[in-house]
Here is the input.
Amino acid sequence: KNEVEQSPQNLTAQEGEFITINCSYSVGISALHWLQQHPGGGIVSLFMLSSGKKKHGRLIATINIQEKHSSLHITASHPRDSAVYICGPFRGNQFYFGTGTSLTVIP
Amino acid sequence: IAGITQAPTSQILAAGRRMTLRCTQDMRHNAMYWYRQDLGLGLRLIHYSNTAGTTGKGEVPDGYSVSRANTDDFPLTLASAVPSQTSVYFCASSELRGGLGSEQFFGPGTRLTVL
Here is the structure.
């Protein structure tokens, strides 16, 4: 079972484009994690948020707990942003991670 | 600064063999986790430990066991490996506060193939 839906599943963008990746979940949560998985497989934590918005460099994450939705935005995308982006709502005592959005940024 | 290390990096294993995947962190985090990642299924929690001496079952615990003798180490054991345990295994740690979700830091992963 997977209660987390990410869209789109795959995304190709031109360098410089503004990118939005969406994450929807079906049950109440207390927090949500955004991860980045590089082509080589390594996983990096991007954001952990429970309300509002967080910004780090060109990355912005927003969450609306009531609407059960979070978005990850990338401004001025660059080829080095090419990766899989994974969201993970936290419920009970664990994260339930989605299958990810595969992003390719073309020069 | 190592963060989290995992060993081995990859392993090919005959079905029925016993295998222990090692995970060590040097961040003094109280919580540690084992996930498996399979194509189309995402990261799924196998076992977790909120503090040394305690462990808990995640979403897919069958066929796996863990122990947490100290803060730094969290080994995952497959007692008798089966081909369906072919996967990439990630260890993670976090500073757990009050039962709330906290940022997780991941190891580099172990690619395991069971034949």
About this structure: Chain A has a mean pLDDT of 93. The first strand of chain A starts at residue 4 and ends at 7. Chain A is about 0% helix and 60% strand.
